[in-house]
């Protein structure tokens, strides 16, 4: 991105837009808040039509978010974005959306359990909101019966917003943005680059959302059918989770509540598809051909899931003594759930086949590895991503070849494509930052009182947007039990950092963002 | 003649002399052991001395051969130790002897030997294995890679230009390092004697300190020793972790390079930070915290207290300290401070490039600028290191160790620290660990000790050999099916 004076983009001729304050950050934040307020409003209507318990909380939150978002949207106009603004825009949009998104939980008193003071309620609400928008699925909710259906649906909806991204949504809504639109999407989207589906960035964003909406509808229909047409509410709620590879469920025991092979099969299929690049889905829909098998990342992704499932089935069958059928059912569901960073569970209770914290250590280590890897680039899943792992593996293989011939020039290829050295070094840098953040997070969470096993699993889980973790934060447990209030805030921050793939948040706070022009000038000189 | 053979002969000479001395020192305690060690050591030293006169190392060996030779060297040493432990009956089972020998030569503070029951020769030999392992690690890091290979592309694995001062040529460098290492050992042993230790104990702890091996004559490491002994151990570990260059500068009274060394400054800052974090967070005594910090960062493995009871955050600090490890040119393990510095610089550069893709970001080390190629190679090294730790944790987890024990055990073995949270414990005792788990530690200790590149080179050699075999048609699917058919026919013919 070129630095220096940047022309402001505005429509030709006189426009009231010209009189508005030029700030893309505030403008996009306004759109994001307005979009979230619409979701709140829809959920308030649902609440009013069903249980009516939390209608006021949802309505008031919708009003506040809508007013704030509308004002920001109306009073500002987008300007061409400079590189340094892109990361700040994405970071602040996400942080503030998370905070505003916590309002319904605070106002409804969702976390007002016995002995919970106001601060704890706020902390828990922010945690739940961060977990929702980052599509993680970690929860501090212990009572799944008290909140009304509208509020529970809002909780699911936060996943859905966060899955494709509120910034992508804002870009889709904006009629013009000038330069920087694609960078905005790239900064928010998971992966190393962002596929441009059409020449226009806003059109690309719109198409991504169209695929996403279509995916959600398909998931809802499939779930509804598999569940025996019993509850449309459950189907829609879980479709939001599946599309976003989130992890929230409307039931305390997640998918284990249904104890149904049909439901689990549908969930597995949609989790796998949710962890696949949405650009591939778009191509499949528009061209009518199936492009998946030609994509090396997708093949590796399936390979990882298959190998991990096989290893865990064997370990759990032999070491834990589970019957082979239960071992397969528990292992495959859990592997796909964590391998796609969804985080749903089919455990029917503590010690049941799907309760992976009771599995042998080797199986849990494989799951930890899956939490680190995550799904494909361009999907809604978290983790480091399969493509990056492929590149890292090839970098390691190149080291092997270099140890034989140090001067050899060895390009890195993925399928038929050669990966540029700049992407290779970006991937290596990302891996290093991820690794350092895991260590920093582990130090912080253990210093705040977490036990080692739970903390390790939770930090990896939070950065990879998985949801459930290991130890006390397993699939049948709860983060409220496992961590202190400050530790929960640290984990909430890690979830946002993980969702935005580290760089936007780091670059929004690192001081040389504000000195980038000088640095670039010095470097060029 | 191959570089590997020449190195094995050199190492055999040092090891033979050391083994012989251990045997001689054991006379009067357990004479059977003493005679066995003296004879084996004498024969080994004599054979190596004769072979050394006839074998000259090649002038410019290939990189792959050097790395593969390093792997072979350590394998031969570990097998020699195994045979000696098993042959003298010090450890009844061959697998136990293998684990003890591997822990010794890789300078990992893990043991199966009951030092109170073992003869003096055996206890001294165990310490000598770590001393020889440490010496070889320094030789390889300071002499072999930078001087023998003369490859700037390997700069990330070596000590760079500052090495030229100590090591003007391979033979001079090897001699100087041996003198410095022996002198440092002598100084440590004398210091321990002055604190009131007996000769055998002073020798054992001294050898364990200088080599970062971490063996002592007691089951509770240094917990039962006096404050003066612990203080000497702390200073000794610091110098051992700081590396042979720091010892060289101090021996020559040159303070300027000390101040100018970026790596040394970082090493000290990290030590102080780790100590302060542990002391302030849990109210642990500054002395104990400092001792454990330096023990972890130098990857020695000495302990003055059961630190696994200190709480989770402090154990994570120690884990990270061991992961970062010691300075380049030391006998310690871990990622090495220098590499971590360079990787951080590289990551910072990536952040900067996000803002300006055309920015030219230079990563410097002392007075040298590193090429992108070197940084890429370091990245590959880091990935390999993490993979080794991950595979190790998986191996331990599958063999029955708890989740935390697996992760901690793997990190601890790969960094050659030794003690670990979980089954192994603060004093590195392997008695409570199952046989399969102990055996799983052996490749981890060796991979970590060799600092990964030789492992990669070994994998590379296997890959090349496999490719050549495929090219010759020995491993093609068609030839395999043909062989299978022939086998089936011969079986049916027999039937």
Summarize the structure.
With 525 residues, chain A is mostly helical. Chain B has 20 helices and two strands.
The share of residues in helices of chain B is 55-70%
The H/E string of chain A reads EHHEHHHHHHHHHHHHHHEEHHHHHH
The stretches of 5 or more residues of chain A where confidence is low (pLDDT under 50) are 1-10, 516-525
Separation, N- and C-terminal Cα atoms of chain A = 17 Å
Tell me the strand order in the biggest sheet of chain A: 1-2
Q: Give the helix/strand class of chain A.
A: mainly alpha
Question: What does this protein look like?
Answer:
The complex is a heterodimer of chains A (525) and B (495). Chain A has 22 helices and 4 strands. Chain A has helices at residues 24-49, 55-75, 83-101, 103-108, 118-133, 149-164, 166-173, 181-188, 201-226, 232-244, 261-274, 278-287, 296-319, 324-339, 361-373, 386-404, 421-447, 452-463, 479-482, 485-499, 503-509, 516-524; strands spanning 21-22, 76-77, 412-414, 417-419. Chain A has a two-stranded parallel ribbon. Chain A has a two-stranded antiparallel ribbon with strand order 3-4. In chain A, helix 17 packs antiparallel against helix 18. Chain B has helices at residues 3-25, 31-54, 63-87, 94-105, 120-148, 163-166, 170-194, 199-210, 227-242, 244-251, 256-260, 262-282, 286-297, 312-324, 337-355, 372-398, 403-414, 435-449, 453-471, 477-494; strands at residues 363-365, 368-370. Chain B starts with a helix and ends with a helix. Classes of the chains: A mainly alpha (525), B mainly alpha (495).
């Amino acid at each position: 991105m070129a630095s220096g004076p940047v022309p402001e983009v505005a429509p030709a001729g006189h426009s009231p837009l010209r009189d508005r304050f030029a700030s893309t950050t505030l403008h996009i934040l306004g759109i994001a808040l307005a979009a979230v307020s619409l979701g709140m409003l829809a959920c308030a209507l649902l609440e009013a039509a069903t249980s009516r318990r939390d209608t006021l909380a949802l309505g008031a939150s919708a009003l506040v978010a809508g007013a704030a978002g509308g004002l920001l949207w109306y009073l500002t106009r987008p300007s061409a974005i400079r590189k340094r603004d892109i990361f700040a825009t994405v970071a602040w949009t996400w942080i503030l959306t998370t905070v505003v998104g916590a309002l319904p939980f605070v106002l409804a008193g969702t976390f007002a359990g016995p002995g919970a003071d106001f601060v704890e309620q706020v902390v828990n609400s922010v945690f739940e909101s961060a977990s929702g928008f980052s599509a993680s699925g970690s929860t501090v909710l212990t009572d799944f019966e008290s909140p009304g259906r509208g509020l529970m649906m809002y909780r699911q909806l936060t996943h859905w917003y966060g899955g494709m991204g509120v910034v992508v949504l804002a870009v889709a809504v904006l009629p013009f943005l000038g330069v920087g639109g694609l960078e905005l999407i790239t900064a928010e989207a998971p992966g190393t680059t962002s596929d441009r589906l059409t020449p226009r960035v806003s059109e690309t964003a719109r198409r991504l959302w169209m695929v996403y909406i279509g995916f959600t509808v398909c998931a809802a229909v499939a779930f509804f059918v598999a569940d025996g047409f019993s509850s449309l509410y459950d189907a829609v709620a879980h479709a939001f989770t599946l599309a976003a590879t989130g992890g929230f469920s409307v039931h305390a025991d997640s998918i284990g509540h249904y104890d149904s092979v049909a439901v689990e099969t549908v969930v597995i299929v949609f989790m796998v598809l949710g962890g696949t690049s949405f650009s591939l889905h778009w191509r499949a829909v528009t061209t009518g051909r199936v492009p998946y098998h030609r994509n090396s990342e997708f093949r590796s992704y399936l390979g990882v899931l298959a190998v991990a499932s096989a290893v865990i089935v064997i370990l759990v069958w032999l070491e834990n003594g589970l019957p082979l059928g239960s071992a397969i059912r528990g292992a495959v569901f859990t592997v796909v759930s964590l391998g796609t960073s969804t985080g749903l569970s089919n455990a029917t209770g503590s010690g049941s086949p799907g309760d992976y914290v009771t599995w042998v250590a080797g199986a849990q280590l494989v799951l930890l590895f899956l939490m680190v890897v995550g799904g494909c680039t361009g999907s809604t899943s978290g983790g480091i991503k399969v493509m990056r792992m492929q590149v890292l593996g090839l970098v390691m293989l190149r080291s092997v070849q270099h140890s034989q011939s140090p001067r050899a020039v060895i390009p890195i290829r993925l399928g038929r494509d050669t990966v540029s050295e700049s992407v290779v070094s970006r991937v290596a840098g990302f891996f290093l930052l991820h690794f350092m953040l895991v260590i920093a997070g582990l130090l912080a969470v253990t210093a705040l009182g977490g036990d080692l096993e739970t903390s390790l699993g939770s930090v990896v889980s939070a950065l990879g947007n998985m949801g459930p973790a290991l130890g006390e934060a397993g699939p049948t447990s709860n983060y409220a039990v496992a961590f202190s209030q400050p530790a929960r805030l640290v984990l909430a921050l890690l979830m946002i950092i993980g969702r935005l793939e580290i760089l936007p948040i780091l670059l929004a706070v690192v001081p040389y963002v504000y000195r980038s022009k000088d640095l670039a000038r010095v470097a060029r000189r | 003649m191959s570089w590997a053979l020449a190195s094995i002969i050199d190492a055999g000479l040092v090891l033979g002399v050391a083994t012989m001395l251990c045997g001689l020192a054991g006379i009067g305690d357990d004479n059977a052991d003493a005679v066995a060690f003296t004879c084996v050591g004498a024969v080994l030293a004599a054979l190596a001395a004769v072979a050394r006169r006839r074998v000259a190392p090649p002038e410019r060996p290939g990189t792959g051969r050097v790395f593969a030779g390093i792997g072979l060297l350590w394998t031969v040493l570990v097998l020699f130790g195994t045979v000696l432990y098993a042959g003298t009956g010090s450890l009844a089972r061959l697998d136990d002897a293998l684990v003890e020998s591997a822990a010794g030569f890789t300078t990992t503070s893990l043991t199966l030997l009951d030092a109170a029951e073992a003869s003096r020769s055996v206890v001294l030999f165990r310490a000598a294995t770590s001393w020889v392992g440490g010496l070889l690690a320094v030789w390889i890091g300071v002499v072999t890679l930078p001087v023998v290979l003369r490859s700037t592309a390997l700069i990330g694995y070596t000590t760079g230009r500052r090495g030229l001062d100590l090591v003007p040529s391979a033979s001079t460098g090897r001699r100087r390092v041996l003198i410095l290492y022996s002198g440092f050992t002598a100084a440590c042993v004398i210091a321990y004697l002055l604190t009131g230790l007996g000769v055998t104990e002073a020798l054992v702890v001294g050898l364990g300190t200088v080599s970062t091996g971490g063996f002592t004559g007691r089951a509770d490491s240094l917990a039962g020793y006096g404050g003066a002994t612990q203080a000497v151990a702390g200073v000794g570990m610091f110098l051992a972790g700081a590396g042979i260059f720091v010892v060289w500068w101090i021996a020559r009274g040159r303070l300027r390079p000390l101040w100018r060394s970026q790596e040394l400054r970082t090493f000290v800052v990290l030590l102080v930070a780790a100590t302060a974090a542990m002391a302030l967070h849990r109210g642990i005594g500054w002395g104990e915290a400092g001792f454990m910090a330096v023990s972890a960062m130098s990857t020695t493995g000495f302990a003055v207290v059961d630190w696994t009871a200190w709480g989770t955050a402090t154990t994570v600090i120690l884990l990270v300290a061991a992961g970062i490890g010691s300075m380049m040119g030391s006998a310690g393990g871990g990622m090495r401070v220098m590499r971590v510095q360079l990787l951080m610089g590289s990551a910072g550069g990536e952040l900067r490039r996000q803002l300006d893709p055309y920015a030219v970001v230079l990563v410097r080390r002392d007075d040298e600028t590193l090429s992108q190629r070197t940084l890429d190679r370091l990245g590959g090294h880091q990935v390999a290191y993490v993979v080794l730790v991950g595979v190790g944790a998986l191996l331990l987890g599958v063999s029955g160790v708890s989740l935390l024990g697996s992760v901690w055990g793997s990190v601890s073995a790969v960094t050659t620290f030794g003690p670990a949270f979980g089954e192994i414990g603060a004093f590195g005792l392997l008695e409570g660990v199952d046989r399969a788990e102990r055996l799983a530690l052996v490749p981890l200790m060796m991979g970590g000790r060799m600092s990964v590149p030789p492992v990669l080179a070994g994998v590379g050699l296997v890959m090349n050999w496999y490719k050549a075999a495929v090219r010759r048609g020995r491993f093609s699917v068609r030839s395999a099916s043909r062989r299978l058919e022939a086998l089936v026919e011969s079986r049916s013919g027999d039937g």
